[in-house]
Automatic annotation (TrEMBL):
Name used for this protein in its record: Surfactin synthase thioesterase subunit
Stretches assigned to the Thioesterase domain: 22-238
Family stated for the protein in its record: Belongs to the thioesterase family.
Record-level GO BP terms: lipid biosynthetic process
Amino acid sequence: MTHVPGAWVQRPPEETGAPVRMFCFAHAGGGRSFFAPWRAALLPDIELCPVVLPGRETRIKERPLTRVEDVIDRMCEVLPEHLDRPFALFGHSMGSVLAYETARALHAAGLGTPLGLIVSGRRAPHLPARRPPLHLLAEDEFVAAVARLGGTPQNILREPGLLRLFLPTLRADFELNETYRPLPGAALPCPVSAFVGAADPEAAPEELAGWRESTAHGFSLRVFRGDHFYLKGTPGELFAALRADIRRFGATVPVSHPVHIERITP
């Protein structure tokens, strides 16, 4: 991938020829490195383009953002130059709401409409929070809560120097996710697919099913083996599902397309 300091979108260094470009938004504390194993696995069908938010990786010295609206404003500025071919959006956990609101904003502004949206590990936007916000906790309590959730490398949480460097970004991401409320606007004019781990403690399959309310087109729900980070444990099933959904998105999907639920288990 091309690593340009300050760049919001990480594109491959050379033209891939893939017919579809997929922009990916990571979980709280995550970044482009989370999607690194995906790139070769999804080619030649899908060109993977992770979104890098301020405060991490190549942008570690930049102030992290704490409001979804601020991210969406920047997405509408930087993404259009990358929309020279059909595209889709993917988000995991916090990234789901960023992908969702980006899709809505791009369409509303006439900048582009995605073939489809794939959300993962995040309850539907209209559902209430399960627990009090973590970003308001004292440092020790916050770090302990993040450790229980998984997803953040243990070496960061255990090494005081790394933790001091990364903690503001991690807390900002949780604030962004926990203060989010759906922005005004119409349902998406494209299909939505929701992915979830069967044992996810943060988002149950029925909470992911609520994403059907976000689209005027087709909706599907895929339930995988695993927990909140099932993506790491089921790469084969995950990549097959991504390819299948991108192919489905490329077809004409009528408004009356039925809800499809698939449980991917051993």
